[in-house]
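Box 3.1 A note on notation
Throughout this textbook, protein chains are presented in two layers. The first layer is the amino acid sequence; the second is a token string describing backbone geometry. Keep the layers aligned when reading.
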Amino acid sequence: MNRTLHSIVPTHTVLEGGGFKVRRPAAMGRLMSPFLLLDEMGPVDYAPGEAVGAPDHPHRGFETVTYLLAGGMKHADSAGNSGDLNPGDVQWMTAGRGVIHSELPQDHMMENGGRMHGFQIWVNLPAKDKMMAPRYQDIPSGDIPEATNDDGTVWAKVIAGEALGVQAVIDTVIPITYIHLKMQPGATYTHTCEHDHNVMIYAFGGSMDIEGRSLHDGGLGLLSEGDAVTLVAEEDGAELLILGGPELGEPIARYGPFVMNTRQEIYQAVEDYNNGTLA
């Protein structure tokens, strides 16, 4: 049974971190377990000295996934971990019981300016895993599988899950689909889905037809149940993310950068942060 596009969530632009612009679907956290947030960072063109990021901030109880398309970011945390993200790279950070980290522009972005564009997605953790040990998976672009269809009209970068016969290399706590897809005008792609997973499509370029309904740039399409979804790129082509994962079905208590199951767990996270024992 093919999935249909049952609703479209519009995006709005907000400022995050030190003041960088993100395009964010409204009401996403209430609609699409296990995803809590989807931020499209930019695209924005910075002059020298203008680039901004997110200085030190804590997380507990979920995962942040950063995928960079253009520009350069660097990250560091209170445990001494650090690294750079360049175009095409992914950082899959499992905050677990807690980390305090920063995400800032690389020095060349500050000195020379340039375009910054990418995504950060928050993935919820089941209650049993919320206090797991934190971990980072920094995956360079060259290690992330890519594939094209037989006629070269569809290209996929497989961050998590499987597409066009290739499997992701990133290890996820729960089964996640995260595919970056580019489609030439008129191209067709059918993606096989886990029947019991929530699946959504975020369009960030062009437009596509999904079973007779159009999804345009800046729209988050929530799909009905089914085993597959068929996308047909319209005359302007299409660029999109396919995201999927299981419905966790657990209560969510959320306060800023903490996502737990009860208010008491949130109070404990705030207390741990204030007394220096979060990370």
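The two ends are 46 Å apart (CA to CA). The chain has one domain: 5-246.
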